[in-house]
Amino acid sequence: MNQGANDNPDGLIPSLPCCRSLHDNFRFKLLIFMSIIFIDVADLISDWLLFKDVAVAEKGLVYGPPEDSIRLALLAFCIIGTQTIALELINLWRDIFRGNPWLDVELLSAIAVWLEDVPQIVINVIIIGCREEAISYFQLMKASVAVAGFKVPHNYIKGKYDDAKYFENVSVYFSHELFDLDSSLGRSTTNKNLLRLFDINDIRHGHGVDRIIKLEFDQSDIPTIQKFIIWENNITQELRAKECFSLDRTRKQITLGSNCTSYISTKSNQILFIFRFIQPNDLKLIFGDITYNINVKNNSSETCKPPDFEIRNDIIDYSEVTSAALHYYRTLDVSKRTYSLIHTSDNNSKFYNSKDLQDIEDVWKTGFVYCKSTGRLAPHRDNSIVVPCL
After folding, report:
1. CA 244 from chain center: how many Å?
2. Does some domain include residue 352?
3. Is residue 155 part of a domain?
4. Which pLDDT score, from 0 to 100, does residue 150 have?
5. 9 is in which domain, residue-wise?
6. Number of compact structural domains in the chain
7. Which pLDDT value is given to residue 336?
8. Rg of the chain's alpha carbons, rounded to an integer?
9. How confident is the model at residue 81 (pLDDT cuts 50, 70, 90)?
10. CA pair distance 82, 112, nearest whole angstrom
11. Which of 364, 371, 362 shows the shortest CA–CA distance to 128?
12. How confident is the model at residue 160 (pLDDT cuts 50, 70, 90)?
């Protein structure tokens, strides 16, 4: 009996003769080999699915795609993994059916783990450090088993997102030379005035209705006192006058108006925005995105046309009078968030500026290591959105 055990060419549990008989059974060998193929292919598919999720990610609210270096590294190790798994399976086939593998099966398996799995685990630890979703949880699960000498397909576990952390009291703000109340202060970031357009959550939960904002102001090249009306649409797309005010650049004050619908009786200019929310799409756009288009009208008789000024995505990015900016900010004082301006009394108000707001770059710190946001810091322009003359 001992002699028979020692004669076992594979050394497979020589003390159990029944296992030797199974080991010599072709169907048993085929079952083992096919099972390993299934597990390795599932592992390979999980790696490529992860790369696909990372590769198709787009820039949107809060999140964008990982850095190019991470995506390229992930692609490289997916290719290496494909080659090592193919080599591992061929070597295993030679071991099971011919008894002469090129390399020791366990050694080659260990090499595959260190060349394929471990680098991907490191990459995914980097990714998950800046994210809250499960784009890399399954890789961590796989690692805990793979390092122990096994390989298993991943389970996709959906992550949970903290909407309040990113969007509570966050609004779209607009800055333009029209709002320069005191030209003697210069155009530094701290002196730039901003108009609050709308809360991000209003459009995120707006049932697919575009957000229309019309800024109407009376026609004059360099007015001493200039009147403004801010129009916005309701759920039925009807425009209503939300707020009106006059800007006195001589006295450097803003006075709130009444009866806003007829506040401007002379010819007027207008800046018209249409904002559109792009719905979330799994890992492609985790929180969705906001796009916009814009037209201007120089007086009541002309047709609308694209603006002659450039719109940047940060007030830091512009200093010329021929440019403007859209940007996301969090309002620090929630009580001030009702209107487009800060109402300082029943009759007076002031523009927002940097001391009233928290920049979105400081709000959107992602993951447990609080990484810098890779998403967009402002709505981005989409020229395909039709902006009518209203």
Report:
1. 35
2. yes
3. no
4. 46
5. 2-146
6. 2
7. 65
8. 31
9. confident
10. 10
11. 371
12. low
Q: Tokens 């005191």 map to which residue?
A: 182
Instruction: Concatenate the DSSP letters of all residues of 176-204 into one string.
Output: -GGG-S-GGG-S-GGG--BEEEEEHHHHH
Same domain, 141 and 247: no
Bridge-based pairing state of the strands 323-331 and 310-312: parallel
Q: Are residues 236 and 359 in the same domain?
A: yes
Label residue 4 left, alpha or beta by phi (over 0 means left) and psi (-120 to 50 means alpha).
Answer: alpha
Q: Tell me the whole-structure pTM to 2 decimals.
A: 0.77
pLDDT for the residue numbered 156:
33
The pair of structure tokens assigned to 148 is 């122990």
Do residue 211 and residue 133 come from a single domain?
no
Pair (199, 257) in one structural domain: yes
What lies within 8 Å, CB to CB, of 171 at 6+ separation is 196, 197, 198, 199, 200, 328, 329, 330, 331, 337
82 and 218 together in one domain: no
pLDDT in tens, 108-148: 778 878 887 788 878 877 777 777 654 544 555 554 444 44
* Inter-residue contact 10 to 4 (CB < 8 Å): no
Place of tokens 């039709």: 386
Residue 151 lies in a domain: no
CB atoms within 10 A of CB 245: 24
| Cα atoms found within 13 Å of the Cα of residue 127, Cβ hemisphere only | 30
- The answer to whether the Cα torsion of 318, 278, 238, 293 is positive or negative is positive
Q: What percent of the chain has pLDDT over 70?
A: 78
